[in-house]
Design a protein that fits this description.
The chain is an alpha/beta fold. A hairpin with a 2-residue loop joins strand 4 and strand 5. Helix 2 packs across helix 4 and helix 6 packs across helix 7. The chain is elongated and about 85 Å long.
């Protein structure tokens, strides 16, 4: 059978699985695999395993023992399913994270109900990224049904902790060779970057903790103490006066979306200081104390044109400047984690393949973009040393982590068709 005939049959095979795709997405959403703390990971793995094992996939369940967050209460489980074809060839791997963020407030539907309404499946993780995981499963199943004599291998993974850095998921697996270029040659990560976009990579990130130090005293005599919160106020004021304006001048040639992320950014992720929050149910009043510690966590996103050493130096120099000008100012700056930017070449095989498939399914060429935030491509690239990797999947990026998150059913079908056509181009030779 010619490839054009095979492609036509494949598109029809995916479309015929539309209802199945919706049900699988609903089933995945209804498992509240919330991270942190990392609930119900094994249940997601088991659901996917039960789906794929009868179709000839070998199943590996890998717990990331010793990884950040892993515990007996919240084990970091990962699934890797592989189906080898009857002929030798390359491996195409679809990698989806199984964790979702907390539901938050403001929902008008059950966040873990998987409700279908107006051509959309609603729920936490619908677009980020259980709809993408379901689409990759359907794409693989349709491909295997029409091209059983394929050359190479198809892999599907459901991995832990992407929302908190991926260290209990793809990073752990990459360190152990699962993404070694000798066993995997092409990777598609079905993140919700929109069905007409190919995401080539992401900006860099540096997370750090700044702690200001003071001296505790009675709140009625604050002059006998030294407020760490006031010192942190000076840090925040200096950020506003000098650091934020500096970052606004830094622009990138990377095709980052949305437009606001084409510059360097800094977010104060959290602030903690003074007395601890009272235990739930406590009805008393706080004690009168001067805060002797205050801490913020910063999230600095940087560009491929920036050097990480300089990124860190900008913050250190700001803190040293405050120390020179402010009596009693003392601080500690602690690294939490860092990732350098990653961007796959436009001429990489997986890029050209998916580009052609999008043109066939959608009737127009794709937009090439870079993500404002990191995702698991960072570990596949930097640890696995596998460069031939992109993000492509259904879902609208702006809906991720929002209340009333949803994924369009038509979008999932068309994204699955793109994935399936990519399998034909790479494996049906």
């Amino acid at each position: 059978m010619s490839v054009p005939d095979l492609s036509d049959r494949l598109l029809a095979a995916v479309a015929a699985r539309r209802d199945d795709l919706v049900v699988l997405t609903q089933d995945l959403i209804r498992i509240p695999s919330v991270n942190p703390p990392g609930r119900h990971y094994r249940e997601v793995c088991d659901l996917v395993a039960q789906r794929l094992r009868p179709q000839g996939f070998s199943i590996d369940l890998v717990r990331a023992e010793g990884a950040p967050g892993d515990s007996d209460k919240y084990p970091r489980w990962n699934l890797i399913a592989r189906r080898d074809g009857p002929r030798g060839g390359e491996c195409v791997h679809f990698n989806s994270h199984l964790d979702v963020v907390e539901e938050g407030h403001g929902w008008t539907t059950d966040p873990f109900g998987g409700e279908v309404k107006n051509g959309r499946v609603h729920g936490r993780g619908a677009c980020d990224m259980k709809g993408g995981l379901a689409a990759s499963v359907i794409a693989a199943e349709a491909f295997l049904s029409v091209a059983p004599d394929f050359a190479g291998a198809v892999e599907i993974s459901a991995t832990a902790d992407e929302e908190s850095g991926g260290y209990g998921g793809v990073a752990f697996l990459a360190e152990r060779g699962w993404f070694d270029p000798s066993r995997v040659q092409h990777v598609i990560i079905p993140e919700p970057l929109n069905k007409n976009r190919i995401c080539l990579g992401h900006r860099g990130v540096w997370w750090a903790e700044i702690e200001t130090q003071g001296r505790i005293a009675h709140g009625s005599m604050p002059f006998l103490g030294d407020s760490a919160i006031r010192h942190m106020g000076a840090v925040l004021a200096e950020m506003e006066a000098t650091l934020y304006p500096l970052l606004a001048t830094k622009r990138t040639a990377m095709p980052v979306v949305p437009e606001g992320a084409r510059q360097s950014t800094l977010n104060v992720n959290s602030i903690h200081g003074g007395e601890a929050e009272p235990e739930e149910g406590f009805t008393g009043f706080p004690a009168p104390c001067v805060a002797d510690r205050c801490r913020i966590v910063i999230d600095r996103r940087f560009l491929i044109e920036e050097d990480l050493t300089e990124v860190k130096a900008e913050v250190t120099e700001m803190l040293e400047r405050i120390a020179q000008e402010r009596p009693g100012f003392a601080y500690e700056l602690r690294d939490l984690h860092e990732v350098v930017p990653s961007m796959t070449d436009r001429d990489a095989p997986i890029v050209r393949t998916v580009e052609s498939a999008i043109g066939r399914v959608l009737g127009a060429p794709p937009e090439f973009v870079v993500s404002p935030g990191t995702y698991d491509q960072k570990h596949i690239d930097r640890i696995g040393r596998l460069k031939n990797c992109i993000a492509y999947g259904p879902g609208i990026l702006d809906l991720a982590h929002q209340p009333d998150e949803w994924v369009g059913i038509d979008d999932m079908v068309e994204a699955a068709q793109v994935m399936a056509l990519s399998l034909v181009a790479l494996l049906a030779r």
